[in-house]
Specification:
Elements (H helix, E strand, L loop, with lengths): L3 E8 L9 H10 L8 H26 L7 H19 L4 E8 L6 H11 L3 E6 L6 H14 L5 E2 L7 H17 L6 E8 L3 H5 L4 H13 L7 E7 L12 H10 L3 E6 L7 H17 L4 E4 L7 H14 L24 H7 L10
Parallel strand pairs: 1-2, 1-3, 3-4, 5-6, 5-7, 7-8
Helix pairs in contact: 1-2, 3-11, 4-5, 6-11, 9-10
The chain binds the ligand C=CC1=C(C)c2cc3[nH]c(cc4nc(cc5[nH]c(cc1n2)c(C)c5CCC(=O)O)C(CCC(=O)O)=C4C)c(C)c3C=C and fe (ii) ion (2 copies).
The site of one fe (ii) ion has 8 residues, from loops.
């Protein structure tokens, strides 16, 4: 008899309705991976920020959905179904089931862990829907998982340089350019979620993974395009990595260029892509005189993305080779023995035959 293989897809989660916005934000700001303060302070800060932020954020959720909720779970379910179908083809002798574990709203990681336990999985593969590794996202999700689930598992760290992943991005970008009427004088902005600078300084590989991915994408789009990386969704008073997406849009729009803007750290449509990239930054571009502004869609169920995820799961099961795209060492959840980050930066994108663990 074949194995029961559970694949757990991790993402941040989002409110189901407008009433969930404040408690969702409170969960987010209570996370020590997001607010690095000791407990009583963190809980107070979480209550304060979530209360202050909720009214504005509620309006943004309401722009996407009449009920005021996030499309993230719906989009993640589509990805889970597509991945499960692909894995069923690749592993015909086994039973594969995809589970969804959200960090700050339903289905919570604890709920997913209980489901996996109940199902009686023989193998558990942990798959973050965050292509780049950050302690604030993947790291936080995995620690919640290990608190909730006591069995063994195999962990995928990150996959920003996987061939199918890079080409899926290029494909989405070129499709958006076609839709925009193939303009000339293009500036492609590759926008990632920002991080506080202190997080990067403490060893988080997220920023260099975003920037190395951006270089790979830049190498495959028309040579006369300007390409730059920028960081969106800054929250709070700390210093964040930059340049900020909004400032880049203003700078480029002032030159009257055609802007294409693509998300490179989000793989599903949600508030940051539909509202921030789709609506708020469009107004900035218009105000500063951009010739045009076109938002590139998130990867969603793009076949290249689903095959990236399929390949990562097979690699985690020891059935395929993959790219080692992370820094290894202290932060790496896959348990790679690690080598100096600088050496790995050079190696990024080099196909190797070692498997994780
Ligand atoms: C204050 C700190 C935050 C850090 C650091 C952060 C990192 C980070 N987040 C994502 C992906 C997503 N973030 C989403 C929502 C969201 N994130 C923060 C704050 C931080 N994120 C807040 C306060 C919110 C809520 C919305 C808001 O108040 O603006 C979402 C889900 C949104 C949805 O539609 O449901 C995702 C996905 C990444 C990739 C990342 C760093 C690597
Ligand atoms: Fe976020
Ligand atoms: Fe890693």
């Amino acid at each position: 008899m074949g194995r029961r293989i559970a694949v757990v897809l991790f993402n941040l989660g989002g409110p189901d309705t407008g009433n969930d916005v404040q408690p969702f934000l409170k969960n987010l700001f209570r996370d020590p991976a997001i607010i690095r303060a000791p407990l009583p302070v963190r809980w107070l800060v979480a209550r304060l920020i979530s209360t202050l932020r909720a009214p504005v954020v509620k309006q943004n959720y309401a722009m996407m959905d009449a009920g005021g909720g996030s499309p993230l779970l719906r989009e993640t379910k589509k990805q889970a179904d597509a991945l499960q179908a692909e894995l069923a083809k690749k592993l015909p002798g086994d039973e594969v089931r995809c589970f969804i574990a959200m960090r700050y709203w339903h289905p919570f990681t604890e709920e997913a862990a209980a489901e996996v336990q109940k199902w009686g999985a023989d193998e558990v593969v942990l798959l973050p829907l965050y292509p780049q590794f950050s302690t604030t996202t993947t790291g936080s999700s995995l620690s919640a998982w290990h608190k909730a689930y006591k069995g063994k598992s195999r962990t995928i760290c990150c996959y920003p340089f996987e061939e199918n992943f890079v080409s899926a991005h290029v494909d989405q970008i070129m499709a958006a350019w076609e839709r925009a009427g193939r303009p000339g004088n293009v500036n492609l902005l590759l926008s990632a979620h920002g991080l506080p600078e202190s997080v990067v300084k403490s060893g988080d590989p997220y920023q260099w993974q975003c920037e190395a991915l951006a270089e790979m994408i830049a190498g495959r789009v028309p040579a006369d395009w300007e390409v730059s990386v920028c960081y969106q969704s800054r929250v709070g008073p700390m210093k964040w990595i930059g340049p900020p997406t909004e400032e880049e849009i203003a700078r480029i729009s002032d030159q009257g260029r055609n802007i294409l803007i693509a998300p490179i750290a989000f793989v599903s449509e949600h508030i940051e892509t539909l509202v921030e990239l789709g609506e708020e930054y469009r107004l900035v571009a218009e105000k500063h005189g951009a010739a045009s502004y076109t938002r590139v869609e998130a990867l969603g169920v793009h076949p290249g993305f689903i095959s990236t995820l399929t390949g990562e799961v097979l690699a985690a099961l020891g059935m395929k080779e993959t790219i080692r795209s992370c820094a290894g060492g202290r932060l790496c959840p896959s348990g790679w023995s690690g080598c100096p980050q600088a050496e790995l930066k050079q190696k990024a994108g080099v196909r190797i035959t070692e498997t994780a663990g």
